[in-house]
Amino acid sequence: MLSRLFRKDAKxxxxxxxxxxxxxKYTGTWYExxxxxxxxxxxxxxxxxxxTLTDKGYVTIRNTCExxxxxxxxxxxxxxxxxxxxxxxxxxIFWPLKADYWVIDLAADYSYAAVSxxxxxxxxxxxxxxxxxxxxxxxxxxxxxxxxLDINRLVRTIQRCPDQKKExxxxxxxxxxxxxxx
Length: 182
Known about the structure:
Layout: H1 2-5, H2 23-26, E1 28-36, E2 44-53, E3 59-67, E4 70-80, E5 88-92, E6 99-106, E7 112-116, E8 123-127, H3 134-146, E9 154-156
Antiparallel strand pairs: 1-2, 1-8, 1-9, 2-3, 3-4, 4-5, 5-6, 6-7, 7-8
């Protein structure tokens, strides 16, 4: 019962996720456009995530950023939460701990996404490209604000990075089914 309580906003509303996620389309490179500040990403620029669907049915994660001119990164795995239409995942960076990863906004063409945790204490705005049109960004902010997230806590991520000029982020074309978390 307490876990349900902490998943609701001040009005008692549970955080709404997107209706479904096609994991194959979701995999690939995502650039962080903005996020709530967190200790793990302190002093990071050029933050991006690489998601790869494995033949074992889970997604491998490789998050990287530049910190003081050096590349920093961390790896993990993500598992679909049963009965969530792939919109809720459990991310495991440090075994045995798993954290919630809820997709709360997603472009029809998978060009951008907003991800949060059920308690609304974390928020990431992601894009397939290092830059997102301002109009699109503002539209995303309007939708996540309507879901009870504090958009004033968002900090834009610096994405002026030398290697990004030659990168082209595309969704993965690997095929496999995600394994549900037990």
